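User: I'm writing a tutorial on reading structure tokens. Could you give me a worked example: one chain, its sequence, then its tokens, then a sentence or two explaining what the tokens reveal?
Assistant: Sure. Here is the example chain.
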Amino acid sequence: MFVRNHARSVLATDFFVVVTATFRILYVFVVLEVGTRRILHWNVTKHPTANWTAQQFRMIVLGDPAQRFVIHDRDTIYSEGVDRTLEAMGLTILNTPMHVPQANAFCERLIGTIRRECLDFIIAMSEEHVRAILREWVSQSSAVCITNTVVSDRQRDMWASTISADHSPPAMIALTVALVVAQTSGR
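And here are its predicted structure tokens:
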């Protein structure tokens, strides 16, 4: 009930992993604005640290009084230093209970969606490749989120006309092929 009542002021965050074709593990950090279901920020790294995580928050939380709460799990990456940084920004930390991913259901659902709609169909070659894939997917999903909101038919048609054909699955596959060719030709 709390999250529902304060949805516009809650940020949900989490990490998930992507394994590349060379079996390297990459960590993707996502921040979701719960009230709008909008992805505020995402980034990819090979080695997430507490300092890196705190810097990600500094890049998105610019003292906006509308953002008051941050939901994150009890992963060790969210150290006391990260929590102190968030508190210094005026945010209240809402830690999820141990072994209860449903407590951060908004972010868990987003991660599941990213996997089902995007990453399950593509074998990532490198960190740059994951960035390119996610950049394309996030821009596509942002446009789709707009078309799924409750708006007038005229507004929906106007927004739908701004969604280009470049966001189609064949375009994403072409992007992947181009990146693989570029990487293999550089050897």
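What the tokens reveal: The first strand starts at residue 10 and ends at 19. The longest helix spans residues 127-147.
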